[in-house]
Protein backbone atom coordinates (compact mmCIF):
# COMPACT_ATOMS: atom_id res chain seq x y z
CA UNK A 1 0.00 0.00 0.00
CA UNK A 2 1.42 3.35 -0.99
CA UNK A 3 0.52 6.20 1.33
CA UNK A 4 -1.14 8.95 -0.64
CA UNK A 5 -2.35 11.31 1.99
CA UNK A 6 -5.89 12.42 1.74
CA UNK A 7 -7.55 10.80 -1.18
CA UNK A 8 -11.05 11.18 -2.34
CA UNK A 9 -13.05 9.13 -4.76
CA UNK A 10 -15.67 11.76 -5.04
CA UNK A 11 -19.15 11.60 -6.35
CA UNK A 12 -20.65 14.81 -7.73
CA UNK A 13 -21.87 15.96 -4.33
CA UNK A 14 -20.74 13.90 -1.40
CA UNK A 15 -20.24 16.74 1.00
CA UNK A 16 -17.21 17.58 3.10
CA UNK A 17 -16.42 13.99 4.00
CA UNK A 18 -15.29 13.37 0.47
CA UNK A 19 -11.82 14.78 0.89
CA UNK A 20 -11.05 12.56 3.85
CA UNK A 21 -11.52 9.29 1.96
CA UNK A 22 -9.24 6.32 2.58
CA UNK A 23 -5.92 6.01 0.84
CA UNK A 24 -5.72 3.27 -1.71
CA UNK A 25 -3.29 1.95 -4.22
CA UNK A 26 -4.34 2.61 -7.74
CA UNK A 27 -3.74 0.20 -10.52
CA UNK A 28 -2.08 2.00 -13.39
CA UNK A 29 -3.03 0.32 -16.63
CA UNK A 30 -0.41 -0.02 -19.32
CA UNK A 31 -0.23 2.50 -22.12
CA UNK A 32 -3.22 2.59 -24.40
CA UNK A 33 -5.45 0.66 -22.06
CA UNK A 34 -9.06 1.74 -22.17
CA UNK A 35 -12.45 0.16 -21.89
CA UNK A 36 -12.57 -2.65 -24.32
CA UNK A 37 -8.83 -2.83 -24.84
CA UNK A 38 -7.48 -6.35 -25.16
CA UNK A 39 -11.04 -7.51 -25.41
CA UNK A 40 -11.65 -6.84 -21.74
CA UNK A 41 -14.68 -4.61 -21.60
CA UNK A 42 -14.39 -4.24 -17.86
CA UNK A 43 -10.76 -3.06 -17.81
CA UNK A 44 -10.59 0.37 -16.22
CA UNK A 45 -9.38 3.24 -18.39
CA UNK A 46 -6.23 5.15 -17.64
CA UNK A 47 -6.56 7.94 -15.11
CA UNK A 48 -6.09 11.40 -16.56
CA UNK A 49 -4.66 13.81 -14.05
CA UNK A 50 -3.78 17.50 -13.67
CA UNK A 51 -2.28 19.38 -10.77
CA UNK A 52 -4.23 22.50 -9.86
CA UNK A 53 -2.20 25.04 -7.90
CA UNK A 54 -4.93 25.59 -5.30
CA UNK A 55 -6.05 23.63 -2.21
CA UNK A 56 -8.74 20.95 -2.68
CA UNK A 57 -11.41 23.18 -1.09
CA UNK A 58 -10.98 25.62 -3.94
CA UNK A 59 -10.87 22.99 -6.65
CA UNK A 60 -14.00 21.23 -5.39
CA UNK A 61 -15.88 23.88 -3.41
CA UNK A 62 -18.09 22.18 -0.84
CA UNK A 63 -16.90 18.85 -2.14
CA UNK A 64 -18.84 19.24 -5.36
CA UNK A 65 -17.65 18.54 -8.84
CA UNK A 66 -17.06 21.83 -10.64
CA UNK A 67 -18.29 22.55 -14.14
CA UNK A 68 -17.60 21.31 -16.73
CA UNK A 69 -16.86 18.08 -14.87
CA UNK A 70 -20.46 17.84 -13.70
CA UNK A 71 -21.49 17.25 -17.27
CA UNK A 72 -19.62 13.96 -17.11
CA UNK A 73 -21.53 12.81 -14.04
CA UNK A 74 -22.24 9.14 -14.32
CA UNK A 75 -19.64 8.65 -17.02
CA UNK A 76 -16.39 9.17 -15.13
CA UNK A 77 -14.99 8.58 -11.69
CA UNK A 78 -12.94 11.25 -9.98
CA UNK A 79 -10.00 11.15 -7.58
CA UNK A 80 -8.75 14.14 -5.60
CA UNK A 81 -5.70 14.44 -3.39
CA UNK A 82 -3.36 17.18 -2.20
CA UNK A 83 -0.23 17.47 -4.31
CA UNK A 84 3.05 17.02 -2.45
CA UNK A 85 5.21 20.05 -1.77
CA UNK A 86 2.32 22.49 -1.40
CA UNK A 87 1.65 22.39 -5.10
CA UNK A 88 -2.10 22.31 -4.75
CA UNK A 89 -4.42 19.49 -5.72
CA UNK A 90 -4.04 16.47 -7.95
CA UNK A 91 -7.35 16.09 -9.75
CA UNK A 92 -7.83 12.87 -11.71
CA UNK A 93 -10.69 11.37 -13.66
CA UNK A 94 -11.27 8.37 -15.90
CA UNK A 95 -14.15 7.01 -17.89
CA UNK A 96 -16.17 4.44 -16.00
CA UNK A 97 -15.99 1.02 -17.59
CA UNK A 98 -19.21 -0.47 -18.81
CA UNK A 99 -21.27 2.66 -18.27
CA UNK A 100 -23.29 4.23 -21.02
CA UNK A 101 -22.36 7.89 -20.98
CA UNK A 102 -24.98 10.63 -21.15
CA UNK A 103 -26.30 11.42 -24.58
CA UNK A 104 -24.06 13.74 -26.51
CA UNK A 105 -20.92 12.65 -24.75
CA UNK A 106 -21.14 9.07 -25.90
CA UNK A 107 -19.15 9.57 -29.05
CA UNK A 108 -16.36 11.39 -27.22
CA UNK A 109 -16.10 8.88 -24.42
CA UNK A 110 -16.09 5.77 -26.53
CA UNK A 111 -14.11 7.15 -29.46
CA UNK A 112 -10.51 6.38 -30.32
CA UNK A 113 -9.23 8.30 -27.34
CA UNK A 114 -11.82 8.56 -24.58
CA UNK A 115 -9.15 10.20 -22.45
CA UNK A 116 -9.13 13.26 -24.69
CA UNK A 117 -12.45 14.63 -23.45
CA UNK A 118 -11.49 13.84 -19.87
CA UNK A 119 -8.11 15.56 -20.23
CA UNK A 120 -9.69 18.57 -21.85
CA UNK A 121 -12.29 18.79 -19.10
CA UNK A 122 -9.62 18.62 -16.39
CA UNK A 123 -7.56 21.26 -18.16
CA UNK A 124 -10.58 23.56 -18.32
CA UNK A 125 -11.20 23.16 -14.61
CA UNK A 126 -7.56 23.94 -13.93
CA UNK A 127 -7.73 27.08 -16.10
CA UNK A 128 -10.95 28.21 -14.50
CA UNK A 129 -9.56 27.82 -10.98
CA UNK A 130 -6.06 29.20 -11.63
CA UNK A 131 -6.70 31.81 -14.32
CA UNK A 132 -10.33 32.66 -13.61
CA UNK A 133 -11.49 31.82 -17.11
CA UNK A 134 -11.14 29.25 -19.85
CA UNK A 135 -9.07 30.74 -22.62
CA UNK A 136 -10.75 30.75 -26.01
CA UNK A 137 -8.85 30.60 -29.27
CA UNK A 138 -8.79 33.53 -31.64
CA UNK A 139 -11.63 33.44 -34.04
CA UNK A 140 -10.38 32.32 -37.41
CA UNK A 141 -11.43 33.82 -40.70
CA UNK A 142 -13.19 30.53 -41.42
CA UNK A 143 -15.51 31.06 -38.44
CA UNK A 144 -16.81 34.23 -40.04
CA UNK A 145 -17.62 33.45 -43.63
CA UNK A 146 -19.34 36.83 -44.01
CA UNK A 147 -15.93 38.50 -44.06
CA UNK A 148 -13.87 38.03 -47.16
CA UNK A 149 -10.18 38.78 -47.14
CA UNK B 1 -7.78 45.20 -41.03
CA UNK B 2 -4.46 44.67 -42.80
CA UNK B 3 -2.07 42.01 -41.53
CA UNK B 4 1.08 40.23 -42.61
CA UNK B 5 0.03 36.68 -43.43
CA UNK B 6 1.86 33.52 -44.29
CA UNK B 7 0.98 32.37 -47.80
CA UNK B 8 3.24 29.46 -48.64
CA UNK B 9 6.84 28.42 -47.98
CA UNK B 10 9.01 31.49 -48.42
CA UNK B 11 6.08 33.77 -49.22
CA UNK B 12 4.30 36.34 -47.08
CA UNK B 13 1.68 38.89 -48.09
CA UNK B 14 -0.16 41.79 -46.49
CA UNK B 15 -3.84 40.95 -46.66
CA UNK B 16 -7.22 42.05 -45.42
CA UNK B 17 -8.28 39.84 -42.48
CA UNK B 18 -11.12 40.10 -39.93
CA UNK B 19 -10.51 42.43 -36.99
CA UNK B 20 -9.76 40.60 -33.75
CA UNK B 21 -12.35 40.71 -31.00
CA UNK B 22 -12.42 40.24 -27.25
CA UNK B 23 -12.79 36.50 -26.57
CA UNK B 24 -12.25 36.40 -22.82
CA UNK B 25 -12.86 38.71 -19.89
CA UNK B 26 -9.16 39.30 -19.31
CA UNK B 27 -8.45 40.26 -22.95
CA UNK B 28 -7.61 43.63 -24.39
CA UNK B 29 -7.39 44.68 -28.02
CA UNK B 30 -4.25 46.60 -28.92
CA UNK B 31 -3.88 48.90 -31.90
CA UNK B 32 -0.34 48.14 -33.05
CA UNK B 33 2.21 50.93 -33.35
CA UNK B 34 5.34 48.83 -33.87
CA UNK B 35 6.05 45.16 -34.49
CA UNK B 36 9.40 43.47 -34.91
CA UNK B 37 10.65 40.49 -36.87
CA UNK B 38 11.76 37.60 -34.67
CA UNK B 39 14.17 34.75 -35.33
CA UNK B 40 11.51 32.30 -34.23
CA UNK B 41 9.42 33.33 -37.23
CA UNK B 42 11.97 32.10 -39.75
CA UNK B 43 11.10 28.40 -39.56
CA UNK B 44 7.47 29.41 -40.10
CA UNK B 45 8.33 31.61 -43.03
CA UNK B 46 10.21 28.67 -44.55
CA UNK B 47 7.09 26.53 -44.21
CA UNK B 48 8.60 24.19 -41.63
CA UNK B 49 5.58 24.21 -39.31
CA UNK B 50 3.10 21.44 -40.05
CA UNK B 51 0.09 23.27 -38.60
CA UNK B 52 0.66 26.63 -40.26
CA UNK B 53 -2.18 27.61 -42.58
CA UNK B 54 -2.27 30.22 -45.33
CA UNK B 55 -3.65 33.41 -43.80
CA UNK B 56 -2.13 32.87 -40.35
CA UNK B 57 -0.87 36.23 -39.05
CA UNK B 58 2.78 36.38 -37.96
CA UNK B 59 4.44 38.60 -35.38
CA UNK B 60 5.61 37.68 -31.87
CA UNK B 61 6.86 41.10 -30.74
CA UNK B 62 4.74 44.23 -30.73
CA UNK B 63 3.77 47.42 -28.98
CA UNK B 64 0.67 49.54 -29.28
CA UNK B 65 -2.24 51.30 -27.71
CA UNK B 66 -5.05 49.64 -25.79
CA UNK B 67 -8.33 50.30 -27.58
CA UNK B 68 -10.73 47.76 -26.03
CA UNK B 69 -10.73 46.29 -22.55
CA UNK B 70 -12.44 43.14 -21.29
CA UNK B 71 -14.46 43.35 -18.05
CA UNK B 72 -11.89 41.27 -16.13
CA UNK B 73 -8.96 43.60 -16.84
CA UNK B 74 -7.74 45.64 -13.86
CA UNK B 75 -4.46 47.27 -14.80
CA UNK B 76 -5.17 48.69 -18.25
CA UNK B 77 -7.57 51.10 -19.80
CA UNK B 78 -8.16 52.40 -23.30
CA UNK B 79 -5.40 54.74 -24.39
CA UNK B 80 -2.58 53.02 -22.49
CA UNK B 81 0.59 52.58 -24.50
CA UNK B 82 1.71 49.03 -23.81
CA UNK B 83 4.38 46.60 -24.88
CA UNK B 84 3.14 43.01 -24.94
CA UNK B 85 5.45 40.30 -23.62
CA UNK B 86 6.17 37.50 -26.06
CA UNK B 87 4.83 34.87 -23.64
CA UNK B 88 1.08 34.66 -23.07
CA UNK B 89 0.76 33.70 -19.41
CA UNK B 90 -2.09 33.43 -16.92
CA UNK B 91 -0.30 34.73 -13.84
CA UNK B 92 -2.10 32.24 -11.59
CA UNK B 93 -0.61 28.79 -12.20
CA UNK B 94 2.30 27.31 -10.26
CA UNK B 95 4.83 28.27 -12.94
CA UNK B 96 3.58 31.84 -13.28
CA UNK B 97 3.66 32.19 -9.50
CA UNK B 98 7.33 31.19 -9.57
CA UNK B 99 7.95 33.83 -12.26
CA UNK B 100 8.37 31.18 -14.96
CA UNK B 101 5.83 32.68 -17.36
CA UNK B 102 7.21 30.95 -20.42
CA UNK B 103 6.22 27.65 -18.78
CA UNK B 104 2.61 28.77 -18.06
CA UNK B 105 0.17 25.86 -17.78
CA UNK B 106 -2.83 27.86 -18.97
CA UNK B 107 -1.57 29.59 -22.08
CA UNK B 108 -3.42 27.35 -24.49
CA UNK B 109 -6.91 27.85 -25.84
CA UNK B 110 -9.32 25.13 -26.85
CA UNK B 111 -6.97 23.34 -29.17
CA UNK B 112 -8.85 21.95 -32.12
CA UNK B 113 -6.44 19.26 -33.19
CA UNK B 114 -3.52 19.18 -30.81
CA UNK B 115 -3.73 18.10 -27.21
CA UNK B 116 -1.36 20.07 -25.01
CA UNK B 117 -0.29 17.04 -23.06
CA UNK B 118 0.56 14.81 -25.93
CA UNK B 119 1.38 16.90 -28.95
CA UNK B 120 3.62 19.74 -29.92
CA UNK B 121 2.09 23.02 -28.92
CA UNK B 122 2.77 26.68 -29.57
CA UNK B 123 0.63 27.66 -26.62
CA UNK B 124 1.48 31.03 -25.22
CA UNK B 125 2.91 32.42 -28.47
CA UNK B 126 1.69 35.24 -30.64
CA UNK B 127 2.08 34.74 -34.35
CA UNK B 128 1.89 30.97 -34.14
CA UNK B 129 -0.69 28.62 -35.68
CA UNK B 130 -3.99 28.56 -33.89
CA UNK B 131 -4.23 24.82 -34.41
CA UNK B 132 -1.05 24.45 -32.34
CA UNK B 133 -2.38 26.64 -29.55
CA UNK B 134 -0.92 29.91 -30.81
CA UNK B 135 -2.50 33.34 -31.10
CA UNK B 136 -2.73 35.70 -34.06
CA UNK B 137 0.39 37.81 -34.34
CA UNK B 138 1.32 41.45 -34.08
CA UNK B 139 2.20 42.26 -37.68
CA UNK B 140 -1.28 43.68 -38.02
CA UNK B 141 -3.29 46.76 -37.27
CA UNK B 142 -4.93 45.17 -34.21
CA UNK B 143 -4.15 42.24 -31.93
CA UNK B 144 -6.10 40.47 -29.23
CA UNK B 145 -4.03 40.09 -26.07
CA UNK B 146 -5.22 37.46 -23.56
CA UNK B 147 -4.48 37.81 -19.82
CA UNK B 148 -3.65 41.45 -20.47
CA UNK B 149 -2.95 42.28 -16.82
CA UNK B 150 -0.09 39.79 -16.91
CA UNK B 151 1.18 40.08 -20.49
CA UNK B 152 0.89 43.78 -21.31
CA UNK B 153 3.05 46.49 -19.72
CA UNK B 154 2.58 50.22 -19.66
CA UNK B 155 5.49 51.95 -21.35
CA UNK B 156 6.98 54.93 -19.46
CA UNK B 157 6.61 58.21 -21.36
CA UNK B 158 10.38 58.57 -21.50
CA UNK B 159 10.73 55.43 -23.65
CA UNK B 160 9.79 55.78 -27.28
CA UNK B 161 8.18 53.08 -29.40
CA UNK B 162 11.35 52.16 -31.27
CA UNK B 163 13.14 51.36 -28.04
CA UNK B 164 10.25 49.85 -26.11
CA UNK B 165 9.23 47.33 -28.78
CA UNK B 166 12.34 45.35 -27.83
CA UNK B 167 11.01 44.93 -24.30
CA UNK B 168 8.55 42.39 -25.74
CA UNK B 169 11.06 39.62 -26.28
CA UNK B 170 14.66 40.54 -27.03
CA UNK B 171 15.50 42.40 -23.82
CA UNK B 172 13.76 39.98 -21.41
CA UNK B 173 15.26 37.00 -23.24
CA UNK B 174 18.74 38.47 -22.96
CA UNK B 175 18.16 39.20 -19.30
CA UNK B 176 16.86 35.68 -18.76
CA UNK B 177 20.02 34.25 -20.32
CA UNK B 178 22.16 36.22 -17.88
CA UNK B 179 19.89 35.08 -15.04
CA UNK B 180 20.03 31.42 -16.07
CA UNK B 181 23.81 31.74 -16.21
CA UNK B 182 23.71 33.37 -12.77
CA UNK B 183 26.07 36.05 -14.09
CA UNK B 184 27.62 37.90 -11.17
CA UNK B 185 30.14 40.70 -10.75
CA UNK B 186 33.59 39.71 -11.98
CA UNK B 187 32.39 36.98 -14.35
CA UNK B 188 33.75 36.42 -17.81
CA UNK B 189 30.82 35.82 -20.15
CA UNK B 190 31.04 34.59 -23.73
CA UNK B 191 28.12 34.83 -26.12
CA UNK B 192 27.82 33.11 -29.48
CA UNK B 193 25.70 35.18 -31.85
CA UNK B 194 25.66 38.98 -32.09
CA UNK B 195 22.08 39.25 -33.27
CA UNK B 196 19.56 41.25 -31.28
CA UNK B 197 19.25 38.66 -28.49
CA UNK B 198 23.01 38.09 -28.29
CA UNK B 199 23.62 41.84 -28.05
CA UNK B 200 21.09 42.33 -25.27
CA UNK B 201 22.42 39.26 -23.46
CA UNK B 202 25.80 40.99 -23.55
CA UNK B 203 24.24 44.16 -22.23
CA UNK B 204 22.48 42.26 -19.45
CA UNK B 205 25.76 40.63 -18.44
CA UNK B 206 27.46 44.04 -18.31
CA UNK B 207 24.62 45.51 -16.24
CA UNK B 208 24.91 42.57 -13.83
CA UNK B 209 28.56 43.40 -13.30
CA UNK B 210 30.43 40.99 -15.57
CA UNK B 211 34.14 41.89 -15.80
CA UNK B 212 34.43 40.89 -19.45
CA UNK B 213 31.84 40.10 -22.05
CA UNK B 214 32.89 38.56 -25.35
CA UNK B 215 30.68 38.16 -28.38
CA UNK B 216 31.43 35.67 -31.16
CA UNK B 217 30.04 36.22 -34.66
CA UNK B 218 31.18 36.72 -38.22
CA UNK B 219 29.06 39.71 -39.18
CA UNK B 220 31.28 42.76 -38.92
CA UNK B 221 28.48 45.26 -38.36
CA UNK B 222 26.83 43.15 -35.66
CA UNK B 223 30.13 42.79 -33.82
CA UNK B 224 30.68 46.54 -34.03
CA UNK B 225 27.19 47.13 -32.62
CA UNK B 226 27.84 44.77 -29.72
CA UNK B 227 31.06 46.62 -28.99
CA UNK B 228 29.51 50.04 -29.20
CA UNK B 229 26.15 49.53 -27.49
CA UNK B 230 26.87 46.65 -25.11
CA UNK B 231 30.53 47.19 -24.15
CA UNK B 232 31.31 43.71 -25.42
CA UNK B 233 34.61 42.55 -26.91
CA UNK B 234 34.04 41.33 -30.47
CA UNK B 235 35.49 38.03 -31.69
CA UNK B 236 35.23 37.37 -35.42
CA UNK B 237 35.45 33.61 -35.70
CA UNK B 238 36.60 33.83 -39.31
CA UNK B 239 39.74 35.62 -38.22
CA UNK B 240 40.48 34.35 -34.76
CA UNK B 241 40.91 31.04 -33.00
CA UNK B 242 37.92 31.47 -30.73
CA UNK B 243 38.85 28.74 -28.25
CA UNK B 244 42.36 30.15 -27.82
CA UNK B 245 41.10 33.73 -27.50
CA UNK B 246 38.57 32.75 -24.85
CA UNK B 247 41.23 30.91 -22.84
CA UNK B 248 43.56 33.84 -23.19
CA UNK B 249 41.01 36.44 -22.12
CA UNK B 250 39.84 34.45 -19.11
CA UNK B 251 43.23 33.79 -17.57
CA UNK B 252 43.24 30.24 -18.88
CA UNK B 253 40.12 29.35 -16.88
CA UNK B 254 37.52 29.60 -19.63
CA UNK B 255 34.44 31.82 -19.44
CA UNK B 256 32.30 31.39 -16.33
CA UNK B 257 29.15 31.57 -18.41
CA UNK B 258 28.69 30.69 -22.09
CA UNK B 259 25.50 31.68 -23.90
CA UNK B 260 24.54 30.26 -27.28
CA UNK B 261 22.29 32.79 -29.02
CA UNK B 262 22.77 31.85 -32.65
CA UNK B 263 19.07 31.45 -33.37
CA UNK B 264 17.64 28.80 -35.58
CA UNK B 265 20.35 26.82 -37.35
CA UNK B 266 19.84 26.27 -41.06
CA UNK B 267 18.33 22.95 -42.04
CA UNK B 268 21.03 20.39 -42.74
CA UNK B 269 20.90 17.01 -44.38
CA UNK B 270 21.07 13.88 -42.25
CA UNK B 271 24.49 13.03 -43.68
CA UNK B 272 25.79 16.50 -42.84
CA UNK B 273 24.40 16.27 -39.36
CA UNK B 274 25.90 12.92 -38.53
CA UNK B 275 29.19 13.92 -40.04
CA UNK B 276 29.10 17.23 -38.20
CA UNK B 277 29.75 18.84 -41.57
CA UNK B 278 28.47 21.73 -43.55
CA UNK B 279 27.70 24.18 -40.83
CA UNK B 280 29.00 27.48 -42.15
CA UNK B 281 30.84 27.74 -38.86
CA UNK B 282 31.99 25.49 -36.07
CA UNK B 283 29.04 24.31 -34.09
CA UNK B 284 28.44 27.04 -31.54
CA UNK B 285 27.01 24.75 -28.87
CA UNK B 286 29.96 22.37 -29.06
CA UNK B 287 32.38 25.25 -28.95
CA UNK B 288 30.64 26.72 -25.91
CA UNK B 289 30.68 23.43 -24.02
CA UNK B 290 34.40 23.01 -24.69
CA UNK B 291 35.23 26.61 -23.83
CA UNK B 292 33.30 26.91 -20.57
CA UNK B 293 35.27 26.76 -17.33
CA UNK B 294 34.94 23.75 -15.05
CA UNK B 295 31.64 23.81 -13.21
CA UNK B 296 30.48 26.74 -15.38
CA UNK B 297 27.08 27.27 -16.98
CA UNK B 298 26.16 26.92 -20.65
CA UNK B 299 22.88 28.61 -21.58
CA UNK B 300 21.22 27.75 -24.89
CA UNK B 301 18.62 30.14 -26.28
CA UNK B 302 16.32 29.67 -29.20
CA UNK B 303 12.98 28.32 -30.12
CA UNK B 304 14.19 25.61 -32.40
CA UNK B 305 12.62 22.22 -32.09
CA UNK B 306 15.59 20.61 -33.78
CA UNK B 307 18.03 17.91 -32.85
CA UNK B 308 21.70 18.47 -32.35
CA UNK B 309 24.02 15.59 -32.95
CA UNK B 310 27.58 15.01 -31.84
CA UNK B 311 26.93 16.72 -28.52
CA UNK B 312 30.08 16.53 -26.34
CA UNK B 313 28.47 14.81 -23.39
CA UNK B 314 31.82 13.75 -21.96
CA UNK B 315 32.90 17.36 -21.55
CA UNK B 316 29.63 18.12 -19.79
CA UNK B 317 30.06 15.39 -17.20
CA UNK B 318 33.82 15.48 -16.72
CA UNK B 319 33.88 19.23 -16.27
CA UNK B 320 30.69 19.33 -14.24
CA UNK B 321 28.97 21.84 -16.47
CA UNK B 322 25.38 22.97 -16.07
CA UNK B 323 23.35 23.19 -19.26
CA UNK B 324 20.27 25.41 -19.23
CA UNK B 325 17.84 26.39 -21.95
CA UNK B 326 15.13 28.91 -22.74
CA UNK B 327 13.04 29.61 -25.80
CA UNK B 328 10.79 32.42 -24.68
CA UNK B 329 11.13 35.09 -22.01
CA UNK B 330 9.52 35.32 -18.62
CA UNK B 331 7.55 38.50 -17.99
CA UNK B 332 8.64 39.43 -14.48
CA UNK B 333 11.64 41.43 -15.72
CA UNK B 334 9.82 43.55 -18.29
CA UNK B 335 8.96 46.48 -15.94
CA UNK B 336 12.57 46.57 -14.67
CA UNK B 337 13.86 46.56 -18.24
CA UNK B 338 11.48 49.38 -19.23
CA UNK B 339 12.80 51.37 -16.27
CA UNK B 340 16.36 50.79 -17.42
CA UNK B 341 15.31 51.91 -20.89
CA UNK B 342 13.86 55.07 -19.39
CA UNK B 343 17.17 55.70 -17.59
CA UNK B 344 19.13 55.12 -20.82
CA UNK B 345 20.97 52.17 -19.29
CA UNK B 346 19.45 49.96 -21.92
CA UNK B 347 19.32 51.29 -25.46
CA UNK B 348 17.82 49.08 -28.12
CA UNK B 349 16.68 51.23 -31.02
CA UNK B 350 19.87 50.53 -32.99
CA UNK B 351 18.65 46.94 -33.38
CA UNK B 352 15.91 48.19 -35.69
CA UNK B 353 18.22 48.48 -38.67
CA UNK B 354 15.24 48.64 -41.01
CA UNK B 355 12.07 50.59 -40.23
CA UNK B 356 9.35 49.90 -42.76
CA UNK B 357 5.62 50.30 -43.18
CA UNK B 358 3.70 47.08 -42.59
CA UNK B 359 2.91 47.01 -46.30
CA UNK B 360 6.59 46.19 -46.84
CA UNK B 361 6.50 43.29 -44.39
CA UNK B 362 7.46 40.69 -46.98
CA UNK B 363 10.55 42.71 -47.98
CA UNK B 364 11.43 43.25 -44.33
CA UNK B 365 11.36 39.52 -43.65
CA UNK B 366 13.48 38.80 -46.71
CA UNK B 367 16.12 41.25 -45.46
CA UNK B 368 15.95 39.78 -41.97
CA UNK B 369 16.15 36.17 -43.14
CA UNK B 370 19.09 36.80 -45.45
CA UNK B 371 20.80 39.20 -43.04
CA UNK B 372 21.04 41.39 -46.11
CA UNK B 373 22.03 45.03 -45.97
CA UNK B 374 23.24 44.65 -42.40
CA UNK B 375 19.74 43.76 -41.19
CA UNK B 376 19.52 42.87 -37.51
CA UNK B 377 15.79 43.44 -37.05
CA UNK B 378 13.13 44.87 -39.31
CA UNK B 379 10.49 46.86 -37.43
CA UNK B 380 7.11 47.62 -38.98
CA UNK B 381 4.54 50.33 -38.39
CA UNK B 382 1.01 49.69 -39.69
ZN1 LIG C 1 11.45 37.17 -30.70
ZN1 LIG D 1 0.31 30.56 -15.81
Fold and architecture overview:
The complex is a heterodimer of chains A (149) and B (382). Chain A is of the alpha+beta class. Chain A has one domain (16-134). Chain A is built from three helices and four strands, in the order ββαββαα. In chain A, strand 3 and strand 4 form a beta hairpin. Chain A is globular, with a radius of gyration of 17 Å. The model of chain A is unreliable at 1-8, 13-39 and 145-149 (pLDDT under 50). With 382 residues, chain B is of the alpha/beta class. Chain B has two domains: 2-169 and 329-381, Medium-chain alcohol dehydrogenases, catalytic domain (Quinone Oxidoreductase, Chain A, domain 1, Alpha-Beta Complex); 170-326, Rossmann fold, CATH 3.40.50. In chain B, 25% of the residues lie in helices and 21% in strands. Chain B has 13 helices and 15 strands. In chain B, the strands form three sheets. In chain B, strands 3, 4, 5, 6, 7, 14 and 15 form a seven-stranded mixed sheet that branches. A six-stranded parallel sheet of chain B has the order 10-9-8-11-12-13, with helices on both faces. A two-stranded antiparallel sheet of chain B has the order 1-2. The radius of gyration of chain B is 20 Å and the shape is globular. The relative contact order of chain B is 0.16. Residues 268-281 of chain B have low confidence and may be disordered. The interface between A and B is medium-sized, with 25 and 35 residues. Bound molecules: zinc ion (2 copies). One zinc ion is lined by residues 38, 40, 60-61, 86, 169 of chain B. The site of one zinc ion has 6 residues of chain B, from loops. Chain A: InterPro entries: START-like_dom_sf (IPR023393). Chain B: It comes from Micromonospora arida. Chain B: This is Glutathione-dependent formaldehyde dehydrogenase. Chain B: Residues 196-269 form the Alcohol dehydrogenase-like C-terminal domain.
